[in-house]
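To: structure subgroup
Subject: Chain for Friday's discussion

All,

I'm putting the inputs and outputs inline so they're searchable in the archive.
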Amino acid sequence: MKRIITIVFTFLFIFSCAQNSNKETISVNDETPFVWEGANLYFLLTDRFNNGDSSNDINFDRTKEAGKLRGFEGGDIKGITQKIKDGYFTDLGINAIWMTPIVEQIHGGTDEGTGITYGFHGYWTKDWTAIDPNFGTKEDLHELVKIAHKKGIRILLDAVINHTGPVTEKDTVWPEEWVRTEPQCNYQSYESTITCTLVKNLPDIKTESNEAVELPPQLIEKWKAEGSYEQEIDELNAFFERTGYPRAPRFYIIKWLTDYITEFGIDGYRVDTVKHTEEYVWQEFKTECDYAFTTWKENNPDKVLDDNAFYLVGEIYNYVVSSGKYFDFGDKKVNYFDNSFQSLINFEFKWNVKQQDTETLFKRYSNILNSDLKGYGTLNYLNSHDDGQPFDGNRNKPFETATKLLLSPGTSQVYYGDESARSLVIEGTVGDATLRSNMNWNDIETNKETQAVLSHWQKLGRFRANHPAVGAGTHQIITQEPYVFYRSYFKGDYKDEVVVGLDLPKGEKTIDVRVVFKDGEKLRDAYSGVSVKVKNGKVSIDSEFDIVLLETKN
């Protein structure tokens, strides 16, 4: 049986703990199994992360002056690939990347009192079958997935089935057989959450319909102009013949989205606006995603990373892990896990971090994930792109953010710039634009405080990536003072155990490790690089840091 046992001792909230980093002391172990339930997932806005190709910054005459941070800023697929090649994500311990939607966006802009807004965020679809040229090309996406997989990094795209983009002077509404434009949702019940438009001027796909519909004329016209019409029709005919589904709106979109799996080999989808669509739609979506992923693996046996299933994580706004598998609409409770999602984004985590002590927090998540959600997962975050109450909007607590997020049970969602204290308060912005500033690469290159923050995230992130027990293991306290606990993870003949302690002093510290390690075992502190040997059930570490990451020395 493979045995990887580790001790982590960390003191929260201390700025100096990240000084004098040594990246070489931690590396990602190639033998470590990838586990979605404990993954370290990086969420980025494709347009705001990194501009790898300035020649694609303007398309479709999107040239009107936009409100602050409400236009395209130049980030693209090539920019992400560049950072993967540079090792940025590997250094950060990231083993999965979630990108905002890259499908072709509406060509015009809207103005709802915030200044002109273009579809830079990716959630205003015009054509599910095409990649928006502002983000790149299909060749760019092929390259990104290939390079990411070589680095052991999974790729998630973002799926929108619930709605099209807004109607503008350049973008006409889809036929009434496809969409409704009223009423607007008031979210007081199940019906008033799904059979309505999310907001004004966001046409709602009639996902409940089983009636066959013709393709929208504007889509036919577009495909013919591009020369792709015949191929698209042939593929649709083959899809509906294979599945037997009616040619209803949702099945067209499911077909278009699952094409990204069979063509590019993406590893998962983050699914948008889940609670605004009938739950059976997601069961149908999962069926087709699984089929597409199996097909891709059969067609590309030399590119298969492992035997993990296709990953689906859903966004149900205000879902909390306290409710287990169910979301309560008030008049109806719906289970979105069984036969649908492997995980849901957890909107409760940031409040738990604020209100609970560390042991209560960790024990709570371990208990839930090993009882009500056993066999599934949760995606924890502290800051995000559309949560107007971030945990650390002013970036006063980047070390605490890292320590609490990366050491908590569950999948961790690192929002781009969490690791570099990218500002979430931008003067002159309106609404969620303040959360969506450009990645602060210059700070990473020149600012020593930013570099210290990044170092802390890197060390914890790489350690988490090396040890599934951190995110997917079972939690158990050892002692309250000093606060010490362990996590254990088992899968087949693989065993991973992690011991974590908090509030240890700087300088020399003696830790009782007999619960895990035997006398004579050689250990190594992956944070400072110090090597030690267990004597009389204890180890002594002399380092300037408040964090110790002990692992068996190979």
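Points worth raising on Friday:
Residues 1-31+473-554 form a domain with the Immunoglobulin-like fold (CATH 2.60.40).
Confidence is low (pLDDT under 50) at residues 1-5, 9-27.

D.
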